[in-house]
Amino acid sequence: MATIEANRPDTEHRPRLFRDASFWGIGVTQFLGAFNDNVFKQLVLFVCVLKAVGDRADNAQGTAMLVFAIPFVALSGFSGFLADRYSKRTIVVLSKVLEIVVMTLGLLAFLSGSLNALFAVLFCMGAQSAFFGPSKYGIMPELFRQKDLPRANGWFLMTTFIAIIFGVALAGTLMETFRDQIWVTSAICIGIAVVGTISSLFVRTTPVAHPGLEFHAGALFIPRETRVLLWEKRRLLKVLVVTSLFWCTGAVYQLAVNDIGILQLDIGEETTGYLGACAAIGIAVGCVAAGRLSHGTFHAGIVRIGATGMMLTLLLLAAPGSARGGTLLGTGGTAVALVVLGIFAGLFAVPLQVYIQAKSPTAQKGRLVATMNVLNWLGIAFSGVYHKLFNAMFVRFGLPPATMFAAAALILVPVVALYHPEHESLEDDVDVPGEVPVADEAARVA
C-alpha cells in the first residue's frame, strides 16, 4: 500500500495541458496509430465488400471485423496487467516499434494478393493495438492534472476520429488510384509508423502503478480483483457494459456504410470512403462538445440524449424511399445523417470514458481500462458475427443493404429502454479496501 502510494504521481503540479510536451507526444502518437489502423483496415474491408458486388452472400466484411477483434479480446487483459506492472511509457514506445513490423507485413500481404494473408495481418494489427490501448488510456491520469482529464479525453477522442476521417477517406481514394498496386499504401503506412514511434519518445516516464504485481491466469481476461471491484461498484460495471454495446453498434454501422455505398448507392470506393468519414466528422464534434458540456461531472443527460439520438438516426438511415438506390435520403442526405449520427455518438461516448478513468482505483487503472477494452472488443467481435447473420437474412428476404442500419439500431434498444444513469460528480468516490483512492479534485473542463 505504501509502495503504491509512493508511486502515485502528483499530477496537480504538471504543466498546463497545451504546454505539456507529453500531451503532444501521446496525442500525435495515438493519432498516427489510429490513422494507420483505419487506412489498412478500410482497404481490407473494401476488398471484402467488392467480392460481394456479384453476390451479396460473399460479403466477407464480418469475417474481417471478427479477425481484427479477436486479439483484442484475447490480449487486452494481459496488456492491462503489463500496463500496471511496468512503465506505461515503455509499453507505448515498444508497441509503436511493433507497428512498423506489422505494416511491413501488410505490404507483403498486399503483394501476395491473398485475402487470407490480409486477414493474418489484420490479426497482427489488432494484437499490436491491444498492447497499446491500456497504456495509452491508463497513462493519461498519470500525465495530466485530474481537472484536465475531460478536456484531454475530448481532444484525444476528437483527434482519433479525425484520424478515422482521413484514414477512411484516404483508403477509398487509394483503392481507386492504386487498384493494381495497392501495396504502395502499406509503404506509406510504414513511414507513418516510424514517425509515430519518434513522437512516442516525447512522452515522459511515469512511475509504475503497481510494482511487483504478480501474474496469474486471471490477468489473461478479467482479473479476480477487478471482478470484485466491479461487483461492488455496479455503476462502473453498467458503464462498461453500455460502452461495449456502443462499440458493437459503431462497428456494425461502419460495415453498413460500405454496404450501402458500394452495393446500393453504387458510388464507388472513393465516395464511399468520404461517406464513411462523415460519421467520424460528427463524432469529433460530439466528443469536444461532450467534454465542454460535462463541466467535470458524469452528465447523465448527455449520455441519454446520445443513445436516443443514435438509435433514431440509424432508423432514418435504414428507411426506404424514392431517392438514389431506393433510399429515403439519397447520397447527400445519407452523408448529413451520418454526421448527425456521429455527433450523438460523441456525446454518448465521452462521459462514459471519463467516468471509467475517474472512478478507477489508481492501482487497478491499467487493468480496468484493459477490462473495458476486452468488453468493447467482445462487442466489436460480435459485430462481425452480427453482420454476417443479418446480411444472410437480408439477402434471403430480398431486403436492401441499408437495412443493416436498422440492425445496428436494434443493439441500442436495451440501452435506451433500460439504462437510466444519474448525474454524478467525479469528485467523491469511495474506494474499495486495499486500493489507492482516486485523486479528490474533480475532473472538470479548464
Q: What's the count of strands?
A: 3
Number of domains: 1
Q: Label the overall shape.
A: globular
Q: Mean of residue pLDDT?
A: 83
Q: Order of strands across the biggest sheet?
A: 1-3
* CATH topology heading: Growth Hormone, Chain: A
CA-based gyration radius: 21 Å
Distance between the termini: 32 Å
Helix fraction, binned, reads over 70%
Are there runs of 5+ residues with pLDDT below 50, and where? Answer: 1-8, 428-446
- Number of helix segments? 15
The main sheet comes to: 2 strands, antiparallel
Strand/helix succession: HHHHHHHHHHHEHEHHHE
Secondary structure layout:
Layout: H1 2-6, H2 21-50, H3 61-85, H4 88-112, H5 115-138, H6 140-143, H7 149-177, H8 183-200, H9 224-232, H10 234-264, H11 268-294, E1 297-298, H12 300-318, E2 320-323, H13 330-359, H14 365-397, H15 403-418, E3 424-425
Antiparallel strand pairs: 1-3
Helix pairs in contact: 2-3, 2-4, 2-5, 2-7, 2-8, 2-10, 3-5, 3-14, 4-5, 4-8, 5-14, 7-11, 7-13, 10-11, 10-13, 10-14, 10-15, 11-13, 12-13, 12-15
